[in-house]
């Protein structure tokens, strides 16, 4: 029994229907009614239908309900980010969360349309199944206080769990979720030893996010078999052989999974760019063991001391990785640009390549920027190729800026670790021309693939970025006007101008930060609404199938279209049915990976600073709130918090419109970018906090 047939009937009826109505309309036998129950259960769990208090079924859209993900705030309220890009984010007051926890997929009823406020009426999928926290006690009850700040619920420990002490760090598995009068209850399944180093702490972090630590034996065996088979003559039969084309990978020094390689050629009136992407789809087929595991993981997670890959290392670091001087199966996107950088043609085909060199960003910078004689001599056959790449990169970047693309320049941390896994230093990650070259080439490739699939009317997954909410723009306008940078109401079309206006000034970081905060988060969707940040009408993710599941899906779809010229109606319906769920799950795993990576960086920061309590540093303000200032040190790329209670030289108040703290008596002002001298007051390993005093 097909779910789409049942869903179509429920939609067509135009009123709430009973189980009996559906089974009679579809003329089901007694044996088939069990299947109907399973289908209805699946449709309910997917958020496509809802069951009312009378037990009748009706489609979500018909009752003006919205599905999406709940983003909780530590104060108890939250927001629901809708699955559909056409819907606005909804504010959920503390009394209307319905027991939802951060990351849960929910059904929301809009209660105040003008205020964009809603109430959660159903939880489709629970995000949190396990939780890490400290054991605390209230009266006779023991409970877990979660480490994650946005999990603000106290989780009662099941009374059968004995031998626990207040202060124990534990892993609890939730057995009862909070609904109505039912409390949130968990069983303790692991008690952690006190971490002795950052490696131990990151192990605990993996439990916090319930990340997979190993691949299934079936997945490892499948990957091993593929690796042992290698590349046969039959596999390269219908591929374009590009092994004679000068081709390189350009990545970071520590990279192991090489998704992409590039080749370039310049003629009198053309730049021809070949972007070769690892043909993971050749090895990882729909619904195979490897596919199911990759889909569940959604993305690789990159931490300072390790990588949790989406695919087993036999594939991600070997067979699918574009290793130097090694034949590899790829999918090539061949792009032709005129001398102004406008794309004129795009071709897509399976290929066979062999890279000449495994280049690093540092090495290419030495050649192009530093004019390092030794590096130029070492790679003399490739120098002209890198120069052509730099030319095309500038053309593509200029075109993108002219159309309104946003280029944020916010520094990122890089953790340097020793052989034991301890942080030696935390520095600002360098971005140079070599990074920009690869970024521009990958953007151009993703746009070409997205536009091709869209023009053919083929169901696909797009990387979308919606315009910011008007209320966020209003808040931004207040701050920008009060800083004296602009004397008009800010519109989204003004963003590139503002970024250019502050470049190189004291306001650069504050404006980059505030503009970024006003934007929505990019996500995956089967519906193409464009990419606001890149000012791109068509955009997808295609260039990293080793580490992102949506890229792998887009590869399969593109390959199928190229092979058959079109796809059947049946195949189109199937893709339309499965792609929304893939997009939603991939967006969720991406958000989780971002959170894990941020927490891992913070773990490294607190362990690095634990011996520096009492030391003095220069820094600058990077965020202002009513509770205090977030400070980044100049000497290390380390951030900490300066509470307003530690600013004892005056009485300070927060001015939201001007985004600053100001002293009532001494008139001292602190805003983003203000230089400060601080003392490290406290480093709390357990809470992952660094607290400063103001000097």
List keywords for this structure.
695 residues; alpha+beta; OB fold (Dihydrolipoamide Acetyltransferase, E2P); 5-stranded antiparallel sheet; 18 helices; 33 strands
What would your notes on this structure say?
With 695 residues, the protein is an alpha+beta fold. The chain has 6 domains: 3-59, Arc Repressor Mutant, subunit A (Orthogonal Bundle), CATH 1.10.10; 64-125, OB fold (Dihydrolipoamide Acetyltransferase, E2P) (Beta Barrel); 130-192, OB fold (Dihydrolipoamide Acetyltransferase, E2P); 217-459, no CATH class; 470-519, no CATH class; 610-694, OB fold (Dihydrolipoamide Acetyltransferase, E2P) (Beta Barrel). It has 18 helices and 33 strands. The chain has a 5-stranded antiparallel beta sheet, with no helix packed on it. The chain has a 5-stranded mixed beta barrel with strand order 8-9-10-12-11. The protein has a 5-stranded mixed beta sheet with strand order 13-20-19-16-15. A hairpin with a 2-residue loop joins strand 8 and strand 9 (141-146). The radius of gyration is 27 Å and the shape is globular. The model has no long low-confidence stretch (mean pLDDT 91).
